[in-house]
Design a protein that fits this description.
- By secondary structure, the protein is an alpha+beta fold.
- Helix content is 41%, strand content 19%.
- Helix 11 crosses helix 12.
- The model has no long low-confidence stretch (mean pLDDT 94).
Amino acid sequence: MCGIIAVLRRRSNRATPPRSLIEQTLAAALDLDLTLDAGRLAQALVDSASHLEELDAALRGTAGIQCLLAHQDLADRLHVELRELDARIDDLENELDRRAQSWSGQDVENVNAALVRLRDASWAVHRDRLRTAAAVRDLARSSNVPGTATIDAYAAVQTALSSLDRLEVRGRDSAGIHVLVTGHGIGSDDPDLAEALHRRASDALFRSGSVRSLDGGRVLGFVYKTAAEIGELGDNVRALREAIREDELLRRAVRAEAAEVTVLGHTRWASVGIISEPNAHPLEAFEIDGPTEPYVVAALNGDVDNHVALVDEHDLRIAPEITTDAKVIPTLVARRLRDGVARVEAFRATVATFEGSTAIGVSSADAPDELMLALRGSGQALYVGLADDSFVVASEPYGVVEDCPRYLRMDGETPGNPNNPTASRGQIVRLVREHAGTVAGIERMAFDGTALPLEDAGLTRSAITTRDVDRGAFPHFLLKEISESPRSFRKTLRGRIVDDGGRLRVHLGDTSLPPAVRAALRDGRIRRVLTIGQGTAAVAAQGVATALDLALRSSPVSVSSLPATELSGFQMRADMSDTLIVAISQSGTTTDTNRTVDLVRARGARVIAIVNRRGSDLTDKADGVLYTSDGRDVEMSVASTKAFYAQIAAGFLLAFAVAQETGTCDPKLQHEVLSALRSLPD
C-alpha cells in the first residue's frame, strides 16, 4: 500500500474574522457547568461544542490563518484556554463512573455522545487550526503576517505534509511532494535566481530539490523527496518539511500576489523498483534526450502490472536508475499530449491501457489549475475532500478530514456503463481550481469516457476527525492502542453496571436492548443466539458466545458462534424469527458482516450490534446497539488490542442482560463476573 495526497485551492474572498468574534465565541464555549444532572449536563456539553464548532469554522482557511497570525497573543490564549478545557473534560470523565450509577442507560449514551462532540470541537481548534497557522508561519519563515498568496501556498503545502504524516501507515520507505507554481513573478533579469534555476534544473533523475522552469518560465515545478530503508514514522515528513522550509527560491515564487500552487504528494511502500529518490513519487515525464515539455508529474498507488510491456511497446527512453512502474504514467500522458490528443483524453487513454489495481494522481504544466485522478480495481482507494475553496485528495478518509467535512469516495470497481461493463469499470475525475471545494469543480467519468454526473447527495460526511488518528507521542499505533486499552475497557462498562442491594448487576438502556427484543426473550420466542463477525471480530464473537453460554447455562436458549460469511453462506433459514444475532464490528463498515445482517433481518431475526462507531452502517441496520468505549475510539493498528478487549467486555454485559430477560440469570455469578470486569482495567 502507498498513499497519495493532492491539494488544489482557489483564492478565498472570505474576510478575516474579527478578533472580537473569536473572543466572544470562545467565552461562550468556556461558560460550561460540569456539575449539572445528566440531562442538563448533556445539553451543556452540546452547547459548548456548538460554540467551538463555530470557532473552528471561523478559523479555517486563509482568513482564519490570517487572523491567528495577526494576533499571536490570541492564538496563545486559545492554546491555554482549550488545554484547560480539555483538563476539565478529563476530570469529568474520571468522575463519570461514579456519577453514572444513578443515570439511565439513555443518559449515559447522551453524555458520552456529547463528550465525543465536545472533544472533537476542542481538538479541531486546538490541534488543527492553531497548528496549521503555526506551521504556515514556520514554512514561510516570516515574523510578519505573510501575504494572501503566501498563506494560500504554504497552507496547501502544510495540508499535504499533515496528510502524508497520517498516510505513512500505508508505507514509508520514501515520500515526495511536488509543488507547481504559477503567477510567481520570478523573471530572468535576476542573475542569482536565474543561476539557481539553471543549477536545480540539471538533475535528470528528478531528485529532491529539482526545479523545472516551464511554459517559457510562466510555470515552475519544485520537487522534494526523501528515501530510507530504515526509519521511524514521521522521519520522512520532517525531512520534506525542512527541505521546503529552507527553500528560498520557493519562498520567492509564492511571494507574488498572483502566485498559486497545485500540490501532489506521495508516501511509498516499494513494490516495483528499489527504494531511492529517483524512484520516489511524484515522477516527471522526462525521457533520456527527449523534450522537457509537455511537463507531467504523477503518483501511483498499486502496480501497473504491464509496465515492462508498455515501455517496450512505446520505446520509452527511461533512465536506468528509475525502475519504478509509476514512470510510465507521466511519460505516456506526455507522449499523447505531444501527439495532439486533448488533455483529459490523453490521461484517460493512458490509464485505460494499464493492467492491475491502480490509483493515480497527475498534475501538468499545461493545465496548472487542474488535477487528474484515476481509480481502477480493488485494493486501492481515492477520496476527494471538499472544504471552503479547496479540494484535498487522499488515499484514506483520514487524509482529508483535517480540512474537509465532506468527501467523494471514488469507485474503482463498479462499471459506469452497463452496455460496456468491462471497459467502463473504474472512475476518472478532473478537479478544477476555479470551483475548488464545490461539486461544480468535479468532472467524473468512467474509464470508457461515460459521463458520471455528481450531485451533493453523492458525497459522504466524515464520521471521524484527526483526533481519531493522532499518534501522539507514541512511535507507532500498536503501542498507543495497547496503552489505551484500560481506558477503552472502562468506558465500555461505564453506566452499565449498577449496585443493587450490595450485588452488581447489568443495566442496559433500551437503545442497546430494545423492548421488543426483551419481550421476545421473556416469552421464549427467541430460542437461539448466534454471534458473528469477521477477522478479529469473529474471534471476539467466540468470546462473546462463551460469555452467553456462561450466563445462559440454565436456559433453553442455544448459543453458537461463526464467521458472518459462514452464516450467510451455509446457515440461513427461511424463518429466523427465533434467532437473535449479535453482530460485532470495530468500525461498523465490514461488508461481509453488514450484508449478513441484511439477510438475517429479511428472514425475521433480531440484531444487536457491538460496534465502536456512532452513525456507521451497522448501527443503522441493527435493532439495538451496544457501543464499545465511548462509541468512537478508532483503532489504526492492524493488530487489534483495545477494540478486541472492549468487545469482550460488551459481550459479558449483553450476556447477563439477556439472562435477566430469560429469567435464568444467576445473581451470584453475575456479581462475581462484573466485579472482576470492573477491576480488570487497573
